[in-house]
Fold each of these.
Amino acid sequence: MRIAMLGTRGIPACYGGFETAVEEIGRRLVLQGHEVTVYCRGGGDTPPSYRGVQLVHLPSLKGKAVETLSHTALSVAHLMTHRRHDVALVFNSANAPLLPFLRLSGTPVAVHVDGLEWKRAKWGRAGRHYYRWAESYAVRWADALIADAQGIADYYADEFGAGTELISYGAPIQVRPARDRLADLGLSPGGFHLVVARFEPENHVAEIVEGYHRSGAELPLLVVGSAPYADEYTARVRRAADGDPRIRLVGGLWDQEQLDQLYAHCLTYLHGHSVGGTNPSLLRAMGAAADVIAYDVSFNREVLGGDGAYFAGPDDLPDLLLSAERQPGPAGERGVRNRARAAQRYDWLEVAASYEQLCKQLESGESTRRRVSGRRLVRADVG
């Protein structure tokens, strides 16, 4: 099969969950004999392929409200005017307005709907209404919907009466993690707490920093992350740190080897994501045997189960952090159980096999498109 993957920043993955998924799934589909094309943002001196996956680099308009849709529009135009693909995998329901054009090209299409994007505070009223509308449009026009968490699948069933393909992400498993790159940041194994997240309100980085600042924790807190178009929230995180010398805001780290070592050797990994379904950063921490303290929402409980500690706000964190520092043995045991759970439930080989099966079904003509109208069965206030 010829399979196109579009709607993300592209690969090699160095930004987020979608990009990681596209890389891990795409290269495995190539190993199964399929021809895979990934549409990437940017241009210039870029390779035409990566790990067997064909790459098409196209520009995009800059700005949080237009970057994704403008790039996907160019990707769809390119796909329609070049050699036909058997299946298109579109990531992010924000790209739903472009689905009719893909259908005009005769290409079956599945949409990975991501999380509940309209709940993100970075979007104003118009943006939230747009995402709500885009969800409905994706339900109406896609041949299949992909959800990465049961909570997302339940949402589409309750809102639209729509079925989804429940396909999660995989977790990279670290068994004997290296530690030589920790010294670059002045760290030692088990000697720090870790946050890795884009600086957005729904990832609760400010609340984590605030909770740590209030604690009597002795080990430093390493905060890895940044975000385009998020100067105001970044300032909020810095205010929450309030000059605390224990809190280290290091910005974005794109060295994946160093990041692997940070996940593997932190005492605790603090995970504040709340609206995005199954989060690859959480899976990466679990695969590295990290002891996880997660924001208390159904998505995180679904992934972690009973071996996670949970917080609902800054006030919950001081005791959890101090407990981990005073009893590192149980924290390490929870981390080992997290890794075993990740290896059992979140395997990239199984994820790629599920995508391959879905593509085969779409190529053969299976579709859910006429089974649901896209009209909502319930209404929610978007503010």
Amino acid sequence: MISVLKKTIIVTLIFPALLSASLLAQESSQRLNPYDLLLYHEAAGKVQKVQTPADWQKRRQEIIRGMETVMGPFPGDDQRVPLEIEVIEEVKLDKYTRQLITYQSGPDSRTPAYLCIPHAASKDHKVPAVLCLHPTDNKVGHKVALGLGGRAGRNYGAELAERGYVTISPAYPHLANYWPNLGKLGFVSGTMKAIWDNSRAIDLLASLDYVDMSRGVGDIGHSLGGHNAIYTAVFDPRVTAIVSSCGFDSYPDYYDGAERVWYFGKGWCQIRYMPRMSDYRGKLDQIPFDFPELLGALAPRSVYVNAPLHDSNFRWKSVDKCAASAEPIYDLLGANGKLVIDHPDCDHNFPEEQRQKAYELFDSVLKK
């Protein structure tokens, strides 16, 4: 039998150790403030201040883990099967040829896309490329980005082709003509399927002997395409210039935090987006990633954000708060001034002036 004294000694020695381990585990799992990007968890779980780019990479990896918690995992390279491009139709226009294609984005999955090829592009005259991601449209889908949907300000895929860029505009899952079986293909969200399709579209661009990839590629999108562009660039470092129009505010600020948009099938919680988001209804501060962090995760790359003053979907003041939180990371990585926020006096739109600024950004980054 252990004496009372020995029991007391054992409890005295063990209890602090158990308490310490418990506190350490609690700190390790702590959701870091999304508006303070200069914090990270060290290997032992303790919260530390970001002092160096290497420290920031630890926080960035934590952000990506948070994204995958909600979106599902980004597929491995074993899913990069041969593209097996098929041309469905081809139309020759004044400055470029537009092809409707499909490509094999993964095993048992083909993705439709429009590929626009400037007439000047050739093996001996390579030109840069831009991934053009369309907004929500359940009638014509990715046709909108080519000016085929009758909606002004969304035809950036065509305008950039006229400007001399190869452009590719993939269809978005569960819109218009593209309905992949997400569960059967191993995806828990349409968002991750779209990110993967976009990454494979960049593989396709890299395979073309008339595309110049030496400075990476651009990506651009409006609304749905606006956040799709950000998500894709976080996972694919080949994207070196990002344009997001009317694409985001912080998740707690979305529709001013109205609970009605956080039920399964609503807002961000739709199957074609991230159905797991509904798990955070009533506790939005626990969503394990947010746009302040995603903007930081894009650094030191060039980013242009169009956030209109009268956008009814996303609040411009929230966009500014997100950007202000990301600025210290741009400073840390020597990229001060590469995150630009623009506030045109309009509604949920992408005016010509802002599109021209976006195209000039691509020129400055992608053209020699």
Amino acid sequence: MSIKSMEISKMDIIKTSPVKNKSWLKPVVFVVAVLAFTAWQFNQPSSDTTVARSEIRVAAVQQSDLPFTVSGFGKLISKHKRLLTAPTRATIEEILVLPGTQVTPDTIIMKLSNPDLLLQVNNAEMELARHHASLRELIINQKSDYLAHQVILVQIKANLAAAELKVEAQASLAKKGIVSSIDFKRSKLAATQLAEQLTIEQQRLAHLKNAHQEKIAVQAQFAKQLDANLALKKSLQAGLVIHADIEGVLQSMPVTLGQSVTAGEQLALVASNKTMIAQLKIPERDAQHIAIGHQAEINTRSALVRGVVNRIDPVITNGSVIIDIDITGALPVNARPELKVEGIIEIGMLNNALYIKHPVGVKANSSKQLFTLLADQQTATLRTIKFGRVIGNNIELLSGASEGEQFIVSDTSSWLSNPILTITD
């Protein structure tokens, strides 16, 4: 065999041997394909998913004027409160009323004791009594002194009158030479001196009277200070009996029997049950639509009362805004501070709105798939709906639905993988 023939023979061997080695791949590929198809078929959602009608909640699409409201939960709080504090350092001796009790202004909440204050009152009374005694003594002494000066003044007046009579008598005698001119001049000098003395004594008496009045005024002013001090002590003593001061409910009492308290320390809080407001927590997204003056309705569980928005808290707490509602209607008998209530605030009116009962899991201004019932009422198919604002228990429909159509509004999240739902009765 030639070399060329040998090369050709080797080439034939090389070409034919791979075909023999790969002949087993076809059945393997076929088996794998069959298994993959079977697994794919197994994993495909069933087209005959069924659910009992009693397990779903269905709502129909409606179209009408819809009041735009915002709701929230909260509590009643008193519009007028009275914080009762300790008038001075004291010990709680007796507690007569417990929180939750209806009270009147004269209701005694508790009694305090302070022996040191009692001693201060007694000392102030004694000091005031002593001062009044001293004042009376001063007035008596001043009157005696005034009378003594009046006696002197009367004596001077008498002496002056006698001197003037003597001068008058000596005047004619002096002209006749019976009385010497020197004696006459002496008589005139004596009368002049007495007249001057009378003037001085009259001035002294007037000054003495003014001085006496000034001293009495000073002492009387001091007596007023002592009296005011005594009144303060007695007021503090009277303040040891703690009254409610207003009609309402004793809301809280952060102290206990036998506890020592300091001046100004809180003893109790009384809240009026005649004038109350509703304080609601409204989600931040809804609160932006609320304005002062919007009308509201408050549900106290026993009655519905009307109100009006009078305050919007500027602070956002845990995603909520506090809204205060002034109660304008008559409060029911069960109304009391801290009573849990529900409120609906009327924002406005949506004219000719398309809406449906709020489906589970649907958020405002979003798109979501809902199952809509077909005409046979036994089949429901998925449809994408665009939603608008949440209005109370309803939600606005922007597109994807028509009036009268029915949708499943209960939770259907476990069925969304299947576009068709069969409903059984």
Amino acid sequence: MSSTEPKIFEVGGAVRDRLLGLAVHERDWVVVGATPESMTEQGFRPVGKDFPVFLHPESGEEYALARTERKIAPGYHGFTFHASPTITLEQDLRRRDLTINAMARDEAGHLIDPFNGQADLDKRLLRHVSDAFREDPVRILRLARFAARFAPLGFRVADDTMALCRDMVDSGEVDALVGERVWQELAKALMAPAPEVFIRVLRRCGALAVLLPEVDRLFGIPQPPRHHPEIDSGEHVLMALQQAARLEADLPVRFAVLVHDLGKGITPKAELPRHRGHEARGVPLVKALCERLPIPTACRDLAMGVTRYHLQCHKIRELRPETLLRLITGLDALRRPERLSDFTLACEADYRGRLGLEDRPYPQAAYLAEALRRCQAIDATPFVNDGLRGAEIGNAMERARLDALADLRADPDTAG
């Protein structure tokens, strides 16, 4: 390769996914032998803040100059980058996280694979490229996320890579991760085909206890086998996450499922395996976790509601009208009825996330939807026409809603 003639290579996920026979949604490129000036002269638009990245003038795809990086401080911000026309493609690929992400194709379509990424694809292994992996704690999160994404294809984390992650946790590297970055990776992992694998990988290397200690402490906590044949509270949460993915739930639902049982982690030992009151105990834990990461409002609000009311939803047909109305108003469903479907979907994932009960129907969702419909049908107009004012109208509407819910409960034909 001439040092004066820039070369362009397709790199990263597009190369990997094409070898796996998966659809390629976006492509990234590395340019070897170029300078920022030569890129702008060709019409590329610079967008990189920390290192030279450019957008193609027509396709809008990212083209990065080949670069190396060096660790200069703790945490994932502690890097300095060096981009130069003398940096080789292999040097650029060496700084990447996993071997399956460290492959490239040249302009003729030939595969360049200096770290045996294709062999690891064939073996279904997620393996680090070099010991430089330990310099960036975000790579543990990315590793766990790739494991969650590719678990259906049979991928697993290589033993030496898992050992390296444990060393990173033990050395305190993970402590440097800030909440915003943890949430970015968690949100992507929760939407993966196997989100429970993300949690398992983090737990195996010890990172879960650092990043999500409220979730980590659920493992080993027993539950009554009559209701939870899987026994372990942590395993139940992972089974519920599997169900949320199976139900194709969106992000707020999956997050709510992840945290809905946090209260079980602080049940007094003398009360185990029962968890009376775990719903109320879990609410402040969810609130604190949401503030620490921080979690978007939609995810936080649903998680708080699911945590507080999921057991009532499971027993919906047994609830007195007053209790059912408090559930509906507690979810703010009269003003925001769109919340109800997400709430019941999270409850369904929880209900079905139990050993041997994965395919059990959940008619409670239809019953709660009908309860909300009947409450919404109560209109203030007749009470205004009767001469009621102010709080009198609200009280009358509440009584009418309670009567409607009592009729629902008495109807033997109502699903639930």
